[in-house]
Amino acid sequence: MDGDITYEKELPFAKITVRITKIGEDYSILLAGGTKPHIGCTVLTVPRASLTGDGSISVTSSVLNLTGHKDEKICRYLAEQTAKLKNAAVVCTGGFHMDDITEVQIKEVIKAVEEIMREIKGVRPL
């Protein structure tokens, strides 16, 4: 992959943007969304052989969160899924913010990020 690939999902209440950049053999993901995109979390994920011994790829992740931010779930998901897919180190940085977001809207954001990941898995090569 030369340059960046950008994925966007428009929700009724906000937009989510995921930009992936290949850096050598590794990947950088930038996640932004909501009414106040920001950096709330950074996740570094490194692939490794699964401890099951079955030859599958597992990952180890390190997480940095800004105090009070809840962006880890979506950044970690994108980083870990991409690291397993590409067997490469991945860093995902970003955040999604909306004032007064509801539990239903949070579930919609998570679902949208999962849909973006399905699109990423369908694109060859990254």
What integer is the average pLDDT? 93
- The CATH class is identified as Alpha Beta
Alpha-carbon distance between the two ends: 5 Å
Unreliable parts: none
Estimate percent helicity.
Answer: 25-40%
Domain Prenylated flavin chaperone LpdD-like: 15-120
Organism: Faecalicatena orotica
InterPro entries: LpdD_chaperone-like
Protein name: Prenylated flavin chaperone LpdD-like domain-containing protein
Describe this structure in words.
This protein is of the alpha+beta class and 126 residues long. It has a single domain, classed as Ribosomal Protein S5, domain 2. Helix content is 28%, strand content 40%. It has helices at 72-86, 103-122, and strands spanning 4-10, 15-23, 26-34, 41-49, 57-65, 90-97. Strands 1-2-3-6-4-5 form a six-stranded mixed sheet. Helix 1 packs parallel to helix 2. The longest helix is centred in the C-terminal third of the chain and has 20 residues, at 103-122. The radius of gyration is 14 Å and the shape is globular. The N and C termini lie close together (5 Å). It holds the Pfam family PAC_bac. This is Prenylated flavin chaperone LpdD-like domain-containing protein. It comes from Faecalicatena orotica.
Layout of helices and strands, plus pairs?
Elements: E1 4-10, E2 15-23, E3 26-34, E4 41-49, E5 57-65, H1 72-86, E6 90-97, H2 103-122
Parallel strand pairs: 3-6
Antiparallel strand pairs: 1-2, 2-3, 4-5, 4-6
Helix pairs in contact: 1-2
Properties at a glance:
single chain; 126 residues; alpha+beta; Ribosomal Protein S5, domain 2; six-stranded mixed β-sheet; 40% strand
